[in-house]
Amino acid sequence: MAKDFTSRSEDYSQWYNELVNKADLAEHSAVRGCMVIKPYGYAIWEKMQAELDRKFKATGHQNAYFPLFIPKSYLSKEADHVEGFAKECAVVTHYRLKNAEDGSGVIVDPDAKLEEELIIRPTSETIIWNTYKGWIQSYRDLPLLINQWANVVRWEMRTRLFLRTAEFLWQEGHTAHSTKEEAIAETEQMLDVYAEFAEKFMAMPVIKGVKTANERFAGALETYCIEALMQDGKALQAGTSHFLGQNFAKAFDVKFANKEGKQEYVWATSWGVSTRLMGALIMTHSDDEGLVLPPKLAPIQVVIVPIYKGEEQLALISEHANKIKSELETKGISVKYDDRDTHKPGFKFAEYEFKGVPVRIAMGPRDIENGTVEVARRDTKEKETLQQKDIANKIDHLLTNIQENLYQKAIDFREENTFKADSWVEFEEHLSKGGFISAHWDGTPETEDKIKELTKATIRCIPLNNKLEEGKCVLTGSPSKQRVIFAKAY
Amino acid sequence: MAKDFTSRSEDYSQWYNELVNKADLAEHSAVRGCMVIKPYGYAIWEKMQAELDRKFKATGHQNAYFPLFIPKSYLSKEADHVEGFAKECAVVTHYRLKNAEDGSGVIVDPDAKLEEELIIRPTSETIIWNTYKGWIQSYRDLPLLINQWANVVRWEMRTRLFLRTAEFLWQEGHTAHSTKEEAIAETEQMLDVYAEFAEKFMAMPVIKGVKTANERFAGALETYCIEALMQDGKALQAGTSHFLGQNFAKAFDVKFANKEGKQEYVWATSWGVSTRLMGALIMTHSDDEGLVLPPKLAPIQVVIVPIYKGEEQLALISEHANKIKSELETKGISVKYDDRDTHKPGFKFAEYEFKGVPVRIAMGPRDIENGTVEVARRDTKEKETLQQKDIANKIDHLLTNIQENLYQKAIDFREENTFKADSWVEFEEHLSKGGFISAHWDGTPETEDKIKELTKATIRCIPLNNKLEEGKCVLTGSPSKQRVIFAKAY
Ligand SMILES: [Zn+2]
Ligand SMILES: [Zn+2]
User: Fold this and answer.
1) Which of A459, B42, B77, B180 is the most exposed place for a label (fewest CB within 10 A)?
2) pLDDT tens for each residue of A125-160
3) Is the distance from CB of B365 to CB of B373 less than 8 angstroms?
4) Which EC class heads this enzyme's classification (chains A, B) (predicted)?
5) How far is the CA of B209 from the centre of ligand 2 (A)?
6) B151 interfaces chain A, CB cutoff of 8 Å
7) Does residue A411 lie within any of the structural domains?
8) For residues B284 and B305, what is the distance between their CA atoms, to the nearest angstrom?
9) Per the domain annotation, does B1 fall within a domain?
10) Do A276 and A384 fall into the same domain?
């Protein structure tokens, strides 16, 4: 399977595209910019969803569902929001088709034109805050802690599977609070939830920070984000959490009576992660042999492959294999026993390797004799022969070990690819190699724009709890009080 | 809470609308025909989803995701399908907005007109079979057993929450098979999955049957369905499973090489249930005091309400309540302990009654003294005082008992409201009272249409394994070999 597969050093972008296709994660659909998420890719997304959903509920949030359509006029109600989102949108203008009179097929019925066009949601702040107006009267109705799992559409001309598609899947949390402090605490809490998910489940280290004004979400007072570093030295924004102030409450006139009976505008947050995380996962761990998955997100954690000649051997091996399978399953490990007789073991090995199954167990007649199994781990490609006795505990530890190893490798990679730049020469030099660059910036949007223009690098974030340090802006030499993180980004 | 609440006998339809609103299940949105599913309603839908998803996976299906958009021309590829679905659709014609020159807001950019209009999926057979063409080459690729959880849009002018909305949530299974027999077996298997879910989880008895040609899904050779009877005597189609033959394979040219290497068209099924099930659930069990939920679908199965004066009493009660709560949770029962000091016990009782929480436990100072609790069940409104000892087992049994009781009540109701009609006079007489009517029909679409025209009753289904019996059509007197089920329907 790994033949005809471009290596990362040859062409990283080509490697990514081939991997997504050959590992059966996703493919382009016939509709420009829209992807089909294939069953194996969707199974990974489902594991992400399940854990995120658990974390949202553990922090007091409930799920709900709001309309796909947003009346066009709603987008204009919040001044910054309209600038950011009323651009590349899918616009519904009609609600009926009819048969063409010449029998050539169906055509749009011109009589069925909507009075007001509907936009397919690019994000749901407007429709949700319009709804919240009816739900919030008093401080007793607050906080309102709601999340939605949904599809959204942002028309994109240049798309890449998972990373940038016209339609994508995501969750969007939208909360309402009685005080500014509580809303900011929520924004920060959800950033922590995302960071913990990225690090503990995706085994992907992230930097927590805030965006500069230039890079803020349209309508937010502050955008918090987590930023990860991909293998090719480019940054990827993996999640954002926005403190929206009272902007949407004012735009949709959402007030509450406080304890003193006085009317106040409600404070808002929103936060989201999307199927883009699939791209981040791939570009953090995978290698020239295909996908590498952290055990906590692997749909199949362990595959057992029998090596046999004839049905008698298979029956004997299957007996032991099924026993091991059920021992592993008792520990909550997901196992596939692949006894297909249509494919040879070598083919199966290559297939599961390419699909990133963390642990492969092979069992042949000699293993049955000796009471052993051959265990191969996907991350390091190491193989060892283990006694079947107590195998479930051994595999359980191995999976934990793989999870930790992937995280540590990613941490090491990021450390090796994070540089301090104290002059423009250094900045450009490091940038040409890729990675995060920690550098002083004079704090002006003009300088930020200029650097982007010159190098395509953007400020990924101002890290939270950033160490204050006197310095000079790498571009202008003007004084600066802290370093920020620059990188080229997805 | 139940004051200002219309009773079922006063106005069933009004009762339904008020219930959906007051129990916080859903509400109309600002977008015509689209609903907002509120957190409590969505939590019930999530329980439905979880169990259905488990059943789909247990029968070998995997989830995937296909585009929201369908190119207009795709709808025309299958002749019957276009007749059925290329009608009331949401049509995307443009992909960009821009600022109006007069500063009045945003307008659709006329330069951003799509070459081919995109339809928001009303169902996904066309886009999915267009995709399957790339996935199926050989018999080894079959069967392909895929399900999608998604939103769909069918433009509706007269909408009712959950029962008929322009946008709704559903799952749609789409499977591909190498033989006709296997596809039919799949269609029947999924009907059984739906029926079991309806009966065991929703506590809603259903009749399994097939639709007449008139009522078939557009593009299907056979539509199987489950039909339930609502409290007002109207039928509700709760799920459908379609045998699609080779129609979509031919429309999208999807062939496979069989074991002999010969090219054949693939056989197809599709099957779905939607948020409409929420309406069915409500209209099967609920009463004049609000929602009634079967324990297996109740987001909160047990609520514990403390009855106290002062913080000292509360502290003592809370200690016991939390102990009971954790005992119940150990058994997998979902429990809410409502110790809010902002509301009186009576208010809480009314609220949980209205929201259909199956079991309410109340605990006062005397209960602490006596080691008792007061247990009230929502279905029969019975109350009893129980010893706290072994309370988790008692509640567990009670929940099972409530689940069974609701099912039995619904079975009894259906039996009392199913009538045989052997003449037109009898038919009209029974129909005026509502319910299922079992009657002979001459098998022609003309008679079926005529009966619908005269009475608004439709043939809900020809029951599976129907007893054959000589008879005469209730309308025409022509010979008939079996009875079919008529009813007015949602
Ligand atoms: Zn950042
Ligand atoms: Zn039926």
Assistant:
1) B180
2) 999 999 999 999 999 999 999 999 999 999 987 889
3) no
4) ligase
5) 4
6) yes
7) no
8) 28
9) no
10) no
Q: What is the DSSP string of A184-245?
A: HHHHHHHHHHHHHIIIIIS----EEEE--GGGS-TT-SEEEEEEEE-TTS-EEEEEEEEEEE
Look at A151 and B146 and tell me if their CB atoms are within 8 Å: no
Report the residue of chain B nearest A141, measured CA to CA. Answer: B342
What is the CA(B464)–ligand 2 centre distance, in A? 9
- Domain region containing B464: 418-487
Query: Testing the interface with B: which of A56, A89, A124, A168 to mutate, by most B Cβ within 10 A?
Result: A89
Query: To the nearest whole angstrom, how far is the Cα of A79 from the nearest Cα of chain B?
Result: 10
Q: Are residues A261 and A134 in the same domain?
A: yes
pTM above 0.95, yes or no: yes
Q: Domain for residue B196, yes or no?
A: yes
Low-confidence residues of chain A, pLDDT below 70?
1-3
Q: Are residues B152 and B259 in the same domain?
A: yes
- Using alpha carbons only, give the angle B54, B58, B62 rounded to the nearest 5 degrees: 80
Q: B39 preceded by cis ω (within 30°)?
A: no
Tell whether A66 lies on the interface with B, counting CB pairs under 8 A: yes
Residues A199, A410: Cα–Cα separation, whole Å:
10
Q: Which ligand is nearest to the CA of A235?
A: 1
pLDDT at A2: 55
Which residues in chain B come in under a pLDDT of 70?
Answer: 1-3
State which of B243, B258, B285 marks the end of a domain: B285
Q: Identify whether A294 is part of a domain.
A: no
Q: Which residues of B touch A37 (CB under 8 A)?
A: 64-65
- Co-location of B271 and B158 in the same domain: yes
The CA B147 to ligand 2 mean position distance, Å, reads 22
Q: Are residues B312 and B274 in the same domain?
A: no
Cis peptide before A143 (omega within 30 of 0): yes
Q: B65 vs A37: CB contact, 8 Å cut-off? A: yes
Residues A351 and A426 placed together within one structural domain of the fold: no
Can you give the pLDDT at residue A306?
98
Residue with tokens 């029951």: B463
Tokens of A266: 């409600």
Residues A275 and A342 in one domain: no
> Residue A327 belongs to a domain with what CATH number?
3.40.50.800
Is residue A247 within 8 angstroms of chain B, CB to CB?
Answer: no
**How confident is the model at residue A253, as a pLDDT?**
97
In this prediction, residue A465 carries a pLDDT of: 86
Q: What is the pLDDT of residue B77?
A: 87
